[in-house]
Structures are given as C-alpha cells and as structure tokens.
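Postdoc handover notes: sequence design on the structure in folder B. Input tokens:
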C-alpha cells in the first residue's frame, strides 16, 4: 500500500478542491487505496512522480481517469422516486398548461446515466403518443469521462433496475442476458451526454432549464463552493422552474433565492 505523507495529502486535497471543488480532506484512506492501483497500472516509479504529473497537467487524460476513480458514481434507476412523481404530476402538467413545447431538463452530475434515462422515461410515459409534438431531450452532464462512457453505452445490471416499475422495464429495455439489460434506442436518443465541471466559471448554456436535477452531488463540496454552484443553478433556471437535490441534502433559506417547496424540491419564483 502506498501511503501519502501529510504534505502530499495536503497538496492533493488542495488540488482537487481548486480544480473540481471536491472536498477530500476526510478521505485519506480512500485516496491511498485508489492511488495505489493507478500507480501500479501506469508504471510510475513512485507516488511522488505520479502526483507531480497530475499537478502539472490538471486537464490530462491521467487527471480525468483519477477523477473517475475518486468520485462516487453509485446510483440506480428510479432513485428517490418522489422526484419523478413530482416531475410527472406537477411540473409537466404545469408546462403543458403554459403550452411549452421545448422542455429543458438538466441532469447535473448524471454519473452513469440512470437518472437522466429515468427522466426520459417519465417524459415518454407522460406524453405517450403526443410525445412527437414536444422537444423532450434531457441534457446529462458529469465530470467523469469514464462514467459518461458507460452512460452512453446504456447497459445495466438487473440490480440497477430493481426499483423501476416492471412495465417500464418491459417497455424501455432490451434483455441482453440474465444479468444485463440495454436501454432502448428511443430512450437513449432522448438524452444528450456531455462532460462538464460544475466548478467552471462560465456555464455554456444558451437557454435556461425548466427543471434541474443536481442530486447527491453537492455533498462533496464545502459550503462556499455549494453556495456558488447553487447561485449558478438559480441563474440557469427558468422563472417558475424547479431544482431537485438529494433527499439527504438541503438549502439554507437565508443563503439561496430558491423557494422551498418540499424536502429536496425548490423553485425559482
């Protein structure tokens, strides 16, 4: 096992905080374990040599691979189901009453795609045969290139589909083998995956979103970083639009312009 000196750990934690906003100060053992396998795989002579390469090239392929190894991408279909129910029963009917045809939803921190594909299935269920009349593509972004590659492939194990309604599984997946399922092309075509860092100073979006899902992402950030990201999310939310965060997360009403609707659901008013 490769152990980080206090100096190396301090430099490494500061590096991740500066470029990616991720707080790893309490994850020393996790870092050491995952760095060990990378250093061996890459053939570096020492941990110091590897870290020097990362620090000098923060946007290199090595740095991107390290991000994938150190960020947790655990998720599954229909996770925190009340959000999808609220999207279907409150958000979409409201947009329909306003005669919105271009429905803009962003899955920020989409990991391996389960959340974004679930949103696309909600659209398919809600609109049914009328779906062709609406632009229902979902933008899905993540910092991990490795996670995005898996998301684009659209293949998942049975475990990740366990919470999905059985009828949805039959309609929107093709069975590959006893443990593997592939998302159907009609759902896959409704999701656009892009690499994106929420820490970026400028967000590249030309239009605002009717709903943003940024769930279980900000738990990795310190308070200052969270406030800055929430401010940007507010800026890119349409008036009357919604922000969904993880059910273990919350926003301080004195530190955000979003209005509290119910636990983990907020609105721009």
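Designed sequence:
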């Amino acid at each position: 096992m490769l152990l980080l000196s206090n100096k190396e750990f301090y430099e490494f934690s500061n590096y991740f905080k500066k470029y990616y906003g991720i707080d790893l100060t309490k994850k020393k053992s996790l870092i050491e374990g995952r760095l060990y396998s990378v250093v061996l795989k890459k053939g570096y002579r020492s941990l110091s040599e590897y870290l020097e390469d990362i620090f000098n090239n923060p946007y290199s392929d090595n740095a991107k691979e390290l991000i994938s190894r150190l960020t947790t991408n655990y998720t599954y279909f229909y996770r925190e189901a009340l959000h999808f129910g609220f999207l279907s029963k409150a958000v979409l009917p409201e947009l329909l009453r306003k005669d919105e045809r271009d429905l803009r939803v962003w899955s920020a921190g989409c990991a391996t795609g389960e959340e974004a594909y679930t949103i696309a299935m909600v659209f398919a269920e809600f609109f049914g045969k009328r779906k062709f009349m609406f632009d229902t593509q979902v933008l899905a972004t993540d910092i991990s290139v490795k996670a995005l590659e898996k998301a684009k492939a659209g293949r998942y194990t049975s475990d990740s589909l366990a919470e999905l309604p059985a009828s949805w599984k039959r309609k929107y997946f093709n069975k590959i083998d006893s443990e593997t399922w592939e998302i159907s092309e009609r759902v896959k075509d409704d999701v656009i995956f892009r690499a994106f860092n929420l820490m970026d100073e400028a967000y590249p979006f030309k239009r605002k979103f009717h709903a943003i899902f940024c769930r279980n992402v900000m738990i990795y950030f310190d308070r200052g970083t969270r406030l800055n990201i929430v401010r940007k999310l507010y800026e890119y939310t349409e008036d009357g639009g919604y922000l969904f965060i993880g059910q273990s997360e919350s926003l301080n009403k004195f530190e955000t312009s979003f209005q509290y609707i119910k636990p983990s659901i907020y609105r721009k008013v």
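Context for whoever picks this up: The mean pLDDT is 90. Don't rerun without checking with the PI first.
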